[in-house]
């Protein structure tokens, strides 16, 4: 099984990189992508935890915003993390999350909810990329909400009065920097209507022109109709079709390997990268 989209405690997952490797081995996964939000911090621990039977695809899920303000997540895989422009983009995106979180906490506090930045930091694993899931965990710890799912269905969803955007590159900028660093760019959950995304086929065509390599078609947040439409678009533009779990440990219901990528599609995608960077034990 090939699962190219997972998260660890280095962003908003609940498994350490080592624990993720162990979980993937127990699930029978043969190729695993580690794609923490705007971060490569888990790469070394995951690489050092490998055992025979599992190959590791190093990457990151880059948070992007279109010119019209639509949130887009771009999976960068197999890139050289020493490439300075991409590293700077990821660092700036991580740094922008702190003032954004302060604003969200301020809005919630003004609405009468007893929550502080200290609560959020207490719910954030050391070194993790700060994000809404950590605010959700802080709200749960305070007894304001019961679960992360409840938070994202209500107070913290994209259309909530408490939601605040953070500084982010455009998808085109992210694609350019991923490709310049020798990697491949795959748009994550492009039609995830559950997340309030509003991308159109014309938007995807622009991303193809910018150098997009693939579309994550098989994902929990895509309906059957959305998957069929995305497969059609992928065929029209010659894009690689991927499927992934978007696993977050106990932070989400997603199970490792619940959606996977076909081996032939993975071979196509890997061949586009400037070097063979898959890590093996």
UniProtKB/TrEMBL annotation:
SMART domains: POLIIIAc
Entry GO MF terms: 5'-3' DNA exonuclease activity; 5'-3' RNA exonuclease activity
Domain Polymerase/histidinol phosphatase N-terminal: 2-66
This protein's name: Unannotated protein
């Amino acid at each position: 099984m090939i699962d190219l989209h997972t998260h660890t405690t280095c962003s908003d997952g609940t498994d350490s990189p080592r624990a993720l490797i162990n979980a993937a081995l127990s699930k029978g996964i043969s190729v695993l992508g580690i794609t923490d939000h705007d971060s490569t911090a888990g790469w070394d621990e995951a690489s050092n935890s490998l055992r025979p039977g599992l190959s590791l695809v190093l990457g990151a899920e880059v948070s992007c915003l279109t010119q019209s303000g639509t949130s887009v997540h771009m999976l960068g895989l197999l890139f050289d993390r020493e490439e300075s422009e991409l590293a700077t983009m990821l660092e700036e995106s991580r740094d922008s999350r702190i003032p954004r979180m302060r604003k969200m906490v301020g809005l919630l506090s003004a609405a009468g909810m007893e929550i502080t930045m200290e609560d959020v930091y207490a719910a954030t694993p050391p070194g993790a990329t700060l994000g809404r899931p950590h605010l959700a965990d802080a709200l749960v710890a305070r007894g304001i909400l019961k679960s992360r799912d409840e938070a994202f269905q209500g107070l913290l969803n994209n259309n909530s009065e408490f939601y605040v955007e953070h500084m982010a590159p455009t998808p085109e900028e992210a694609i350019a920097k991923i490709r310049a660093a020798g990697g491949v760019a795959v748009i994550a959950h492009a039609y995830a209507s559950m997340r309030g995304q509003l991308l159109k086929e014309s938007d995807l065509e622009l991303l193809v022109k910018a150098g997009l390599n693939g579309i994550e078609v098989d994902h929990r947040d895509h309906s059957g109709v959305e998957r069929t439409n995305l497969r059609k678009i992928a065929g029209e533009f010659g894009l690689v079709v991927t499927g992934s779990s978007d696993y977050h440990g106990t932070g989400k219901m997603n199970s490792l390997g619940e959606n996977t990528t076909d081996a032939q599609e993975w071979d196509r995608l890997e061949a586009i990268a400037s070097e063979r960077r898959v890590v093996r034990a």
